[in-house]
């Protein structure tokens, strides 16, 4: 079964095994580079338009009472100001329609305030820098 395919397409195997010329790769790589202006990333994120221009707080969390070492000290976080919360009448749980409600606590941690500011500017968010933020 392999021999009729090889007879039909003799150059296919050689074409797949031969590396592409370097000049072709560099031309494609330079075409793929696009300059992203501040605030443009939010436009393609899929988040509704009313949530794109949010105000965020950039802060360094306080040390917890049970924390003795300095392992998590000096990190910076981004937290969104909470909007649109209500109590669910059936279960009594707090519900939200905010797509950014739990994003800040989950993973927006930075090593410096400057990198957190750059991230907020890249997404088009207005920010306020505070040293300690408590919920």
UniProtKB/TrEMBL annotation:
Coiled coil: none annotated. GO terms for cellular component: mitochondrial inner membrane. The keyword Membrane applies. The keyword Membrane applies. Keywords: Electron transport, Membrane, Mitochondrion, Mitochondrion inner membrane, Respiratory chain, Transit peptide, Transport. One of its GO terms (biological process) is electron transport chain. It is found in: Mitochondrion inner membrane. Pfam families: NDUS4 (PF04800). It is a peripheral membrane protein. Accessory subunit of the mitochondrial membrane respiratory chain NADH dehydrogenase (Complex I), that is believed not to be involved in catalysis. Complex I functions in the transfer of electrons from NADH to the respiratory chain. The immediate electron acceptor for the enzyme is believed to be ubiquinone. Belongs to the complex I NDUFS4 subunit family. This is NADH dehydrogenase [ubiquinone] iron-sulfur protein 4, mitochondrial. It comes from Zea mays.
